[in-house]
């Protein structure tokens, strides 16, 4: 165990330096069903700063924007409602949201399963308007009725089962959760996912962390890591805004830390969140991601590393990158987050799994 921790410490320092990151937070855990020499590993590490302008040290408990890791929670909400008999994966989008439409006759073919697996043929969000955030409860529904949705064009029929990542599809999944549950999307997430797992440092309503403010200074005082980018000379600088817009809550707006994501990972590694039958479905390969050959399940991406199947999701938005993956066979999870756009967190995550696998 000490040797593994020493390797992780050494690699974390290297990763921060060689990938030129302002800050880096890492969580690595191995449960009681993991390999004997790794069993009980609970590694939390934060390096660098949460804000390059103040040089305040980054701590593991600091809050990060998790970007598209949010989609794992949206898919979970849909699957919960399926388990309760309120939805079916074959339900049509046109029936569930009859007031929403897309200017394409193939729109009527889209089912929940297509949206969860990014095989609906729907397009993607073109501008998140992070610098013009909306915070009212109608923001998500208004987005679903906006020109970006209704005037978008489908790339192909869902029947072709082609992968095309679609944030629009996940915004609509969030709206379906709201309509079926009778709650706002964010309230459903809190009541049925975050609170039961005691993810007390997590929310989809970022602005509530600072009494309604999205000002960087206010959010920083609330314990949040600040977003960064690089200028033309590749110097790390503070981003001008925090990436939040309630229109894109279901695809992108979870804010959390590595401690809470460890709770999320543990719930799935122990198969306590869904029924066993649901787990058999969510990690079944439904499509192939063209650019890297990864598989796509019900909201979860999947890859092989060594002899192991690993499931998870990446997240990238202005100012942040997140990488969350679990390996049931090792009873292990790795979360890596950084407070800069295009940070190499997936590469770091893979290297950490390599360290674990190599020790087996």
Automatic annotation (TrEMBL):
Residues 42-343 form the Beta-lactamase-related domain. InterPro entries: AmpC-like, Beta-lactam-related, Beta-lactam/transpept-like. This is Beta-lactamase family protein. It holds the Pfam family Beta-lactamase. It comes from the Bacteria.
